[in-house]
Amino acid sequence: MFDLSGARVLRTRGRDAFALIVKACRRDVPPARLYTKMKPQNITVDIENKAMQITWDDAHVSIYDFTYLRRACPCAECQPWKEGAGAPGEMPAAVRNAVGELKAVSDVQPIGGYAIQFLWASGHMYGIYTWDYLRAICPCGEHAGKT
Ligand SMILES: [Zn+2]
Ligand SMILES: [Zn+2]
Q1: Which DSSP symbol is given to 83?
Q2: Fold of 4-136
Q3: Residue 62: helix, strand or coil by DSSP?
Q4: Which end of the chain has the lower number of beta carbons within 10 A, N or C?
C-alpha cells in the first residue's frame, strides 16, 4: 500500500498536469526526448482509491489517478492527431470528460515487459501505455507531465 496523501494531492493538481501533457504534444517533442529507458521496479494498483503507483528503477515514485490515465490514453481514437486528424493535442470531448474506472487489479494487463494496458470499465482498452509514456506523463511536482 502507498501513501494516499500523495493521491489526494494529485487529484487537486490533475487538471493542470493534464494541460501540460497536451502542451507537450503540441510542442512536437522529438521521440528521442521522450525516450527515458526507465523501467518500473514496482506497480501498485489501488482500485478503491482509483490510483496507480509506479516506483521507477531510479527510485522516483509516480502516482496516477485513474481518470488522469484514462484521459491520457495514447490510442489513435483518443489522440486522433496521431493519424493526422485534427489539431495536435485536441482531444475529442468524450476523452476530455472520460472518467477512469477499473473493476479489478487484473484490469491492468502487462504487455511484453515494455507496457501496460488498461481494461477500462467503459469497455475502452486500446491504449498501450509504454513505460516511457508513463514516465513522460508523471504528474508529480517535479515532472508535471513534462519530459
Ligand atoms: Zn484510447
Ligand atoms: Zn515525477
Answers
A1: G
A2: NE0471 N-terminal domain-like (3.30.2020)
A3: strand
A4: N
